[in-house]
Amino acid sequence: MRNFVPLLVVLLVIALTLRVDFFVTVVYFLAALYVLSRLWMGRAIRHLGVRRAFTDHAFTGDLVTVDLTVRNVDWLPIPWVEVSESLPVRLMAVPFDRQVITLGPYGEWHHRYTLACRHRGYYDIGPLSLELGDLLGLAHRTGQGAEPKRLTVYPRVVALHELGLPTHSPMVALPVQSPLFEDASRIMGVRDYQRGDAMRRVHWTATARTGRLVVKQYQPAIARETLICLDLDEDDYEITRRYPATELAIVAAASLASHIILKEGLAVGLITEAVDPLVGAERYIALPPRAERAHLMTNILETLARVQMTQGAAFTELLHRAGVHASWGTTFVVITGGASQALFDTLLGLRRRGFSVTLILAQPDVAAHEWQEQAARIGMPLLEAWSDRDLETWR
Known about the structure:
The protein is of the alpha/beta class. It contains eight helices and 18 strands. It has helices spanning about 5-20, 20-45, 205-210, 240-265, 295-305, 315-325, 340-350, 370-380; strands at about 50-55, 55-60, 65-70, 80-85, 100-105, 110-115, 120-125, 130-135, 140-145, 150-155, 180-190, 215-220, 225-230, 265-275, 280-290, 330-335, 355-360, 380-385. Strand 8 (about 130-135) and strand 9 form a beta hairpin. The longest helix has 26 residues, at about 20-45. About 30% of the residues are buried. The model is unreliable at about 160-180 (pLDDT under 50).
């Protein structure tokens, strides 16, 4: 009650003016009640505990159940608490209605709701807002009961082996059937330990010397690495279908990476330039090829879940940069929304330097048939995709 203090002052002035003891006693009683209510609510807000539990990673199409618990950890009851949860619109299966509850001494309130992961992304679940007060409405307190917690929704992954996609297509980067070998007798250096590295690769002498965990790098005997180059520059996609085309490009990248690592047991890397909400800015992302499942989940799919379109990124420059650092014989799988002569010149340059190249166009423009002819003349596979189901036609 916002005007209760001025009301008390007015009543006190009237009581003192009239010199009626009963009125003065009533005013003192109301003042004491007001002070006690404020102290009570102040103590209550400090003794409210909130717990939000859910699986913080999911795939597109999954349902995520969130368990919410509000607990009174004090012996004083709380007459009423209004609970309000802030949720992303893209994830709400049903709206989260404000809940008004009562908590007795050491009481708990449990609530469960479901999030529908319809779109990939990096979402904040929360914050949870609390408002509580006494029975007479003399004192209110508001607070934030739980900090936001992140939910990562991976992009859709199409099971290519179930769609009839041959092993050798669309990656010309698999020209040999023998797996990637490393010659353990030839150490070419060390690097920092990364999640998924086998402990037998740890270089204990260098680890003791440097004070940090490092692993050996062996010289490869046969290079069988695939590098997925993802174009997320919005200028390279048709403006009328920019969003679905880039999302399809991300689905294609995720599906190819999953297929190569999980089904072929081969190394895959990813490069792109995009806006990353984790850092709140545009950045160049380069994930070196590796074949571990942990690399697929924690690096590639995690990155593809977060990245957003950018503007003005020179994709051809990105390809040049990747070509400088890639191992000889690496397969470049280039995914973009539209081809250009500059892009074809860049890809031809990569082929002349010993790299295999496959170009994938996501919802291309009307001139795609011209690029098909040019790609056929130089022997470079060019694939088109208009939807997830078009992956079935890749041969």
